[in-house]
Specification:
- By secondary structure, the protein is mostly helical.
- It has 3 domains: 8-156, Orthogonal Bundle (Fumarase C, Chain B, domain 1); 162-415, Fumarase C, Chain A, domain 2 (Up-down Bundle), CATH 1.20.200; 424-479, Fumarase/aspartase (C-terminal domain) (Ribonucleotide Reductase Protein R1, domain 1, Orthogonal Bundle), CATH 1.10.40.
- It has helices at 2-5, 7-21, 44-52, 62-81, 87-101, 120-137, 150-154, 160-196, 216-237, 261-273, 283-288, 291-317, 347-370, 381-405, 414-423, 432-435, 437-450, 454-461, 466-472, and strands at 24-29, 32-37, 201-206, 209-215, 243-244, 278-279, 328-329, 411-412.
- A two-stranded antiparallel ribbon has the order 1-2.
- The radius of gyration is 31 Å and the shape is elongated.
- The chain starts with a helix and ends in a 12-residue tail after the last helix.
- The model has no long low-confidence stretch (mean pLDDT 95).
């Protein structure tokens, strides 16, 4: 009990020690004054956000920080060109932006992804970091905003309301540029397996019941075409992301920006990013509507649903090894059980399932956030951005790992596939052009009841000669259209 009595005292002592160790500076805003860690490049707005929004521990994706800084750099260049920003300040801001783009100062972007509506906290975090480092470059001390001001200089001609969605677009495009080649590699790997497995005939299955034969390669080729078509849909859906509403400032009217600013800043961003960016048709629509993000997320959900299906097919086809289908063998990437020795699970397919479940859930969040905008602004952009960028990132990484560590190493058990094909009740379908549906159904029923083979029963019934049955019931002939 004695030790418990002293705990509050010890806690107070430790707290006082921390205050002594951690030096602070005082910053002021319209709400009052606050202490800011002396070595922090962020400022009072960020500190307030850290106190208010200690929600998830999740911070902005690196690509989103990069995109926001690219906007700030482009804006500084244009404002200098238009003689709205002092050259010394502008060059300092640009230098800081380059430092961040090279990977420095990233630890100072600390705002939770669940934050103030529209992303003001993130925008101000970026403004403050750039301002304080620029102040240092110009010989001042952090917090002396008379030298470089987060709002008046770094945020000049901008509003969170046009900066944040522009950064969302740039960040999304940067990951789409990685995702599309990743999907192409998966398509190619599946197509290669289609070619490799083409000679292998197996039992087809519909409703998880015996169906007419199919080639294992035909199944895999079908998977590859599915991925290609989904990738094309994603690419088409991403076209709207290239339209920027930068220059709209607060409500899409362009207030407090130069008449030439909008066109010039888009051109600067084209140079900075190397992307084929363009201005939107209407600044108000761009600020009000999140439809382009919804469309892209819908494309990601669409391929996720197909990837779940394909992953589950591979899990089913590889089930066993002694009591399942075991038509294919997936690469063994790790031990599958902490209690059952020798067990190997379809781990990469399971991982991809979980990734795709997350992407599908993210799409619902994006959809709900999209319809939640009111009047001139959708304030739910931070949650849209977080979910969209997460979907793009984990889908890219998940598909890449699945391709390299699963698909490329798949092996087929050709003998087992052939055995199932020849035992399948579905091959009785080949008899229907010769003896009709009803007679063929009776043979199928007898086969199921007697456990005899279809050829055996058909011969006993004398429906066709031995040579005719050999030709008609050739499972390889059943995998292509034409005269049988």
């Amino acid at each position: 009990m004695g030790s418990l009595t002293h705990m509050p005292i010890l806690a107070n002592i430790q707290s006082e020690r921390l205050k002594i160790i951690m030096k602070t500076r005082i910053e002021k805003d319209s709400l009052g004054v606050m202490e800011v860690p002396e070595d922090a490049y962020y400022g009072i707005h960020t500190v307030r956000a850290m106190e208010n929004f200690s929600i998830s521990g999740l911070r902005a994706e690196p690509s989103f920080i990069t995109a926001t800084v690219q906007v700030k750099k482009a804006a500084a260049r244009v404002n200098m060109s238009l003689r709205l920003l002092d050259e010394a300040k502008g060059m300092a801001i640009i230098q800081v932006c380059d430092e961040i783009l090279e990977g420095r100062l990233r630890e100072h972007f600390v705002v939770d992804v669940f934050q103030a509506g529209a992303g003001t906290s993130h925008n101000m975090n970026v403004n403050e970091v750039i301002a304080n480092r620029a102040i240092e470059i110009m010989g001042g001390r952090k917090g002396d905003y008379s030298i470089v001001h987060p709002n008046d200089h770094v945020n000049l001609s901008q509003s969170t309301n046009d900066v944040f969605p522009t950064a969302m677009r740039l960040a999304a495009i940067s990951i789409i540029k990685e995702l599309l080649p990743t999907l192409t590699r998966l398509e190619e790997a599946l197509r290669a397996k289609g070619e490799e497995f083409y000679p292998i005939v197996k039992a087809g299955r519909t409703h998880l019941q015996d169906a007419t034969p199919i080639r294992l390669g035909q199944e895999f080729t079908g998977y590859s075409v599915c991925i290609r078509k989904n990738a094309e849909r994603i690419e088409r859906a991403s076209e709207g992301i290239y339209e920027l509403g930068i220059g709209g400032t607060a409500v899409g009217t362009g207030m407090n920006s130069h008449l030439l600013y909008r066109g010039m800043v888009i051109e600067e961003l084209r140079k900075e990013t190397g992307l084929d960016l363009r201005g939107c048709d209407d600044l108000r629509e761009s600020m009000q509507s999140m439809t382009s993000f919804v469309a892209l997320s819908g494309g990601l959900k669409g391929i996720s649903l197909d990837l779940i299906r394909i992953s589950n097919d591979l899990r089913l086809l590889s089930s066993g090894p002694m009591t399942g289908l075991r038509e294919i063998v997936l690469p063994a990437v790790q031990a599958g059980s902490s209690i059952m020795p020798g067990k190997v699970n379809p781990s990469m397919a399971e991982m991809l399932n979980m990734v795709c479940f997350q992407v599908t859930g993210n799409d619902l969040t994006i959809s709900m956030a999209s319809q939640a905008g009111q009047l001139e602004l959708n304030v739910m952009m931070p949650v849209i951005s977080h979910n969209l960028l997460q979907s793009l990132k984990i889908l890219n990484n998940g598909v890449s790992a699945f391709t390299e560590r699963c698909v490329k190493g798949i092996k087929a058990d050709g003998d087992r596939c052939r055995e199932y094909a020849e035992k399948s009740l579905g091959i009785v379908t080949a008899l229907t052009p010769y003896i009709g549906y009803e007679a063929s159904a009776r043979i199928a029923q007898e086969v199921l009841a007697s456990r005899k083979g279809i050829k055996e029963v058909a011969m006993e019934r004398g429906v066709l000669s031995r040579d005719e049955l050999e030709r008609v019931l050739d499972v390889e002939r059943m995998t292509e259209p034409g005269e049988k």
